Amino acid sequence: MDQIFSMAKCNLWLCPYEILATGPNCGLIEVVSDALSVHALKEKLGDNGTLLDYFNRQFGPKNGAR
Fold it and tell me: What is the 3-state secondary structure (H, E, C) of the chain?
C-alpha cells in the first residue's frame, strides 16, 4: 500500500503491523491502538459514506487550511 500511495503522490504515512499465521485458517494480528474498523466508519458516516468523506471530515479537504 505504501508503494501505491507513493506512486499516486499521496502524502500518507502508514504504520505496518504484524500478522502471524498459526494455521491454514487462523492467525494473530497485532493490536493497532486507536484504529477504527470499516464497520465503525460506516456507522459514523452512514451507509453511503466513503473513506474520502471520513478523511475530509477528520482532516479537512485536500487543499484546505487544516
Answer: CHHHHHHCCCCCCCCCCCEEEEECCEEEECCCCCCCCHHHHHHHHCCCCCHHHHHHHHHCCCCCCC
Confidence tier at 33 by pLDDT (50, 70, 90): confident
- What is the pTM assigned to this prediction? 0.44
Q: How far apart are CA 59 and CA 45, in angstroms?
A: 15
The phi, psi pair for 19, rounded to 5°, reads: -130, 130
Sign of the C-alpha dihedral, residues 22, 28, 3, 55? positive
pLDDT, tens digit, 9 for 90 and up, residues 34-52: 888 878 888 888 878 888 8
